[in-house]
Amino acid sequence: MKRKKKQAHSEEYWQEIFESIDMEYLPIQYMNKCIVSFDSGTVWEIDIKDSLTKQPVEDIEDTLGELFDEYEDEIVSLDFRMDMDSIKKDLSKRVAKFIKLNK
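Below the sequence we write its predicted structure tokens.
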């Protein structure tokens, strides 16, 4: 049995993908934290779940957008940690509602 080779993508390929990410499409309300790594080796861990208890989603989105714009040339990676339990719970509710409405 042949194994598939992992395809290596160029930095330009990934840069195009990262530039196309729009914070409007990332569900802030389902995030636990965002870990930002910089080319200097510095790592910032942003506790989004805690921030959601103190400020509205829109303010957090604006702040993250400004941070990403300001440091885009220095950011090496972004790691979003999602609240999978909340995602599963909400999806289950929506699926159940959809099934009920489409009987």
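The mean pLDDT is 83.
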